[in-house]
Design brief:
This protein starts with 16 loop residues before the first strand and ends in a 6-residue tail after the last strand. The chain is built from no helices and 9 strands. It is mainly β and 107 residues long. 21% of the residues are buried. It has one domain: Jelly Rolls (Sandwich), CATH 2.60.120. The strands form 2 sheets. Strands 1-2-9-4-7 form a 5-stranded antiparallel sheet, with no helix packed on it. A 4-stranded antiparallel sheet has the order 3-8-5-6, with no helix packed on it.
Length: 107
Amino acid sequence: MRIRVRDHVKLQPDRMAKVALAATERALLDLYCVAPGQAQKPHTHGEQDKIYYVLEGRGRFRVGGEEQTLEAGDATVARAGLEHGLVNDGTAPLLVLVVVAPPPPHA
């Protein structure tokens, strides 16, 4: 299955857009579209690992107790049970591919 990620970009004025791109029984692929000033609140998943890969822009990512700035071409991994979240504190949109494995029960 071919996915043209650019065709799915959707920025919302009031909150981060989470766009489902694909799902299997073992993994979920999302696109996070984060406008300047928007964030994903820190949270945890007890059973899922999450991989963030930055396509465009720059943002601060928190995984466990560590905060780091990532930009296009960078990735980070949040293992199950680690608190994680992000914030776009820049002036340009932040586009992030997110892989979650296994998918959460609500997916």
